[in-house]
Amino acid sequence: MYMVIRLLTALLLALFLANCSSVTKQSKKQTIMDVSQEAEIEGTGTSSADIRSMAERMAREIAGIEWPKESLRIRVALTQLDNQTRFPLNPNIIKDRLLTDLVKFSKGSKVQYTENPMGADYLLSARITALHKGSSEGVNDYLQYNFRLTDKADTVIWIESFETKKVGQVGVMYR
Predict the structure, then answer these.
(1) Out of 84, 131, 155, 160, which residue is the most buried by the measure of CB atoms under 10 Å away?
(2) Based on the structure, what is the number of domains in the chain?
(3) Is there a domain that residue 15 lies in?
């Protein structure tokens, strides 16, 4: 009886350890990448590299605007991002990155940034539009990110576009 209990205990332990190791074997290998690198599984929509380069470029341009000299402080509000593409996109990822870069590149200036349009002197808005073509052989997406800075009278003070064009295979995520 003692021998049977030992055998069962050893068998249960072996079974437990085998299940633990199979979980490890089932998990995929993880690759840590630089966030500016394109991944192999990227689709033809917005990528992390697009967001980083777009936000930095827009922030540098806005930081270079010659603001009215008589203003002691200029408040710019980032408004909603209008996504008119077929791609699901969390607009806050672009807004947060852009806000971070705007503050970084405007340090020491009289410009302040907020997400609250109340009391703002200027509004910064963005719209993403796309042209999509697809066939059984693949997809082609041209995306245009338009940024517009307007004053209280809705006059455009600054406008700029960031464009990407990507070709890819028809994938499960876009069917």
Answers:
(1) 160
(2) 1
(3) no
